[in-house]
From TrEMBL:
NCBIfam families the record matches: pcaI_scoA_fam
Transferase in keyword set: yes
Residue ranges with Low complexity bias: 232-248
Keywords assigned by UniProt, alphabetized: Transferase
A molecular function GO annotation: transferase activity
Residue ranges of the region described as Disordered: 229-248
Keyword Ligase: no
Protein name: CoA transferase subunit A
């Protein structure tokens, strides 16, 4: 079978199990692999450790897995706008391993690069560094952080070919590329599926060797916005009126 599967359930068949570690791409609701997350929810697997910048909002994306109590531990950088995430954390129902955002990104990147650990100044002298080894370099103290390799990475891409080469669009790129490299198996959902050769090699961000399975998103796929911030549209000034204002 090729890498392209008919739907998310088929793409995740045989991969999911209780207690596994999952990378989930995205930032808030931007670039999240929501159809793959929905398939994880429907599978009923539980006691999951999920690595993600945050858990989005209630009942969307990872918020679905929090609501069903399928996640037992989050490795994240902040709680964000998800009220259920905050409630479970404060109630002691959910274990959270907080990371500075840059440290989280580097832990994932290091895992994909085969680097078991690295040293950083970020978090030294704070709760982030408690229980972790430290070392001095050039007279400065650094804390050791471990790379993260997941059992499964779920990522979202703007375009992909049937060989698994992926291209991301603007801020939806976020954590997706590094997560794609840092898991035993990577499954991608793509907005536009094309044939090999239709993506300029110079534009490929994630080479297909990292992607084992993928699905094409249906037409009309909805991109959710976490917080829509706009300003009222004012009346457009005519060129003549604009010129008059300048002269006045």
């Amino acid at each position: 079978m090729g890498k392209v599967y008919p739907d998310a359930t088929a793409a995740l068949a045989g991969l999911l199990r209780d207690g596994m570690v999952i990378h989930s791409g995205g930032f808030g609701l931007c670039g999240i692999p929501d159809m793959l997350i929905e398939a994880v929810k429907e599978s009923g697997v539980k006691n999951l450790t999920v690595v993600s910048n945050n858990a989005g909002i209630d009942d969307v994306g990872l918020g679905k897995l929090l609501r069903t109590k399928q996640i037992s531990k989050m490795i994240a950088s902040y709680v964000g706008e998800n009220a259920e995430f905050a409630r479970q954390f404060l109630a002691g129902e959910l274990e959270i391993e907080f990371n500075p955002q840059g440290t989280l990104a580097e832990r994932i990147r290091a895992g994909g690069a085969g680097i078991p650990a690295f040293f950083t100044k970020t978090g030294v002298g704070t709760k982030v560094a408690e229980g972790k080894p430290t070392a001095e370099f050039d007279g400065e103290t650094y804390v050791m952080e471990r790379g993260i390799v997941a059992d499964l990475a779920l990522v979202h891409a703007w375009k992909g070919d049937t060989e698994g080469n992926l291209v991301y669009r603007r801020t939806a790129r976020n954590f997706n590329p590094m997560m794609a490299t840092a898991a035993t198996v990577t499954v991608a959902q793509v907005e536009h599926l094309v044939q090999p050769g239709e993506i300029d090699p110079d534009h490929v961000v994630t080479p297909g060797i990292y992607v084992k399975r993928m699905i094409a998103l249906p037409s009309g796929y909805e991109k959710r916005i976490e917080q829509r911030t706009v300003r009222p549209r004012g009346a457009a000034a005519t060129p003549a009126a604009a010129g008059t204002e300048k002269l006045a």
